[in-house]
Amino acid sequence: MKKRNGSLVLKLLFIIMLGMMVFVLSGCGGSNASIEHDPEERFIYFTAIEGDNPIDIKMEKGSGKLKVAMDNGELRIKLTGAEGQVILDTDATFSADYTVDIPESGTYTLHLLGKKASGSVNY
Length: 123
Known about the structure:
The protein is α+β, with helices and mostly antiparallel strands. The protein folds into 2 domains: 1-30; 34-122, Jelly Rolls (Sandwich). It has one helix at residues 2-25; strands at residues 34-38, 43-59, 62-80, 86-91, 96-102, 106-122. Strands 1, 2, 3, 4, 5 and 6 form a 6-stranded antiparallel β-sheet that branches. A hairpin with a 4-residue loop joins strand 1 and strand 2. The model has no long low-confidence stretch (mean pLDDT 87).
């Protein structure tokens, strides 16, 4: 009977340890990614983003500017119009200013395509 209880305890310990390993290896079940957008200040701050993160922004007709300040990671930015037309599509891994020709005033979509990217965009 004691041998049977001992093997049961070992099996339970093994299951608990396996569960803990899965939890740790999966990044503790959470992500540190965040995006803060202040449309009044025309400012976007992002931390540890992955994949495509579309953000709707208001732009005025004429020459517009996007100022990208990178802290970490890799970033590609893509600005598209309401009909899906591409206004800008570029690698923005380094901090830089971009001038864009906005055909008409309205809402545009700024895609932040990141690989552990952190930084900010002023528009």
